[in-house]
Design brief:
This protein is α/β, with parallel strands linked by helices. It contains 10 helices and 8 strands. It is about 50% helix and about 15% strand. It binds uridine-5'-diphosphate (UDP) and magnesium ion.
Length: about 325
């Protein structure tokens, strides 16, 4: 296989504190790989500004002026990290590359692992997933909720390894497939796992964030998790249907029992506690099930409107 043109995409949201040092580190990585003759000299970095409100875009423009390895695109507003990743992948496809690595702007993921990704690509992998060695840099709550999320996803039939991240290499072939998907809400971790292309894994260490704060809060993480589930699995809807069926069977049996008690044994049970408990239990169950259906309804609603995934303000090529 001939050596590839590599693109590195970076989603950036209010990253003025770290963007400069990140870009310099990535330029260093590209230089190193070029010196080792592992990638083409037209390899580049592609920064996606996800509607930052700080100086991020100004800094990106300056970096582009200084070094044309640095390219970028700016959204008109904040669309969230998944959309920024997708824009990165589709953007570098337009510019022309053989494979692309996505990495976070805070460089919490070890950028020197990129060489291993490229090696696996040269060995024939279309997708190389970065798997973190540990989640020690995450808070206890984030760690537990993340592990729960992956467990649920796996139970629902979406096989994503725990500790996977959006640090990954994908080949041009994989992005070409992504470009054919019209759906707007793509959960990339599920998407690339499902494709069935040759996939390899690279383990990497996570460093603490050096500058600024995490751009995710628990509301946006919950949104990401619910999107991940509802865009990849209809299992929760099936579970509701099965539950409903079982409940119907149960109440049929209960009805028969009550009738026998009343007319055969002439017992009129007091049963207040039972009624209250059952009422609140089923009230809760029904609301929960309606909530699940609502999530899917929301997904359909958003897709049916078929709005563009994101709107681009400017691009630096
Ligand atoms: N990010 C983004 N849009 C958002 C939130 C985050 O593009 O709405 C980017 C952010 O700039 C970073 C990456 O997504 O490059 C991961 O975010 P962060 O490091 O804050 O998440 P954490 O590492 O805490 O999970
Ligand atoms: Mg981070």
């Amino acid at each position: 296989m001939k050596k590839p043109t590599l693109a590195i995409t970076v989603p950036c949201y209010n990253e003025e504190l770290c963007i400069e040092s990140t870009v310099n580190s990535l330029i260093e990585v590209l230089g190193d790989l070029m010196a080792k003759d592992k990638i083409n000299p037209d390899s580049f970095i592609y920064l996606v500004d996800d509607g930052s409100k700080d100086k991020t875009w100004e800094l990106i423009s300056k970096l582009h002026e200084k070094n044309h390895l640095v390219k970028g695109v700016k959204f008109i507003r904040n669309y969230g990290n998944q959309k920024a990743h997708i824009a990165g992948l589709l953007g570098v496809r337009d510019l022309g590359c053989d494979c692309v690595v996505s990495i976070d702007a805070d460089l919490q993921q070890d950028q020197w692992a990129i060489e291993k990704f490229v090696d696996k690509y040269m060995d024939g992998a279309d997708i190389v997933s970065g798997v973190r060695n540990s989640r020690d840099t995450d808070t206890f709550l984030k760690k537990t909720t993340a592990v729960c999320f992956y467990k649920v996803m796996n139970l629902l039939g979406v096989k994503i390894p725990v500790n996977q991240s959006d640090y990954r290499l994908v080949s041009k072939k994989a992005i070409d497939i992504l470009a054919q998907y019209p759906e707007k809400q793509v959960f990339l971790r599920g998407f690339f796992n499902e494709l069935g292309l040759k996939t390899e894994i690279v383990n990497f260490d996570v460093k603490p964030r050096l500058y600024g704060k995490s751009k995710f809060n628990y509301v946006s993480l919950l949104g990401l998790a619910l999107n991940g589930i509802t865009s990849f699995s209809i299992m929760p809807l099936r579970i509701i249907a099965v539950l409903g069926f079982l409940m119907a069977l149960f109440s049929l049996g209960l009805g028969v029992y009550v009738l026998i008690e009343k007319y055969v044994f002439n017992n009129t049970p007091a049963g207040w506690a039972t009624i209250v408990v059952l009422m609140s239990f089923f009230g809760g169950l029904q609301l929960f099930c309606m909530g699940i259906i609502g999530e899917y309804l929301g997904q359909v609603y958003r897709e049916v409107k078929a709005r563009p995934r994101y709107i681009i303000e400017t691009e630096l090529r």
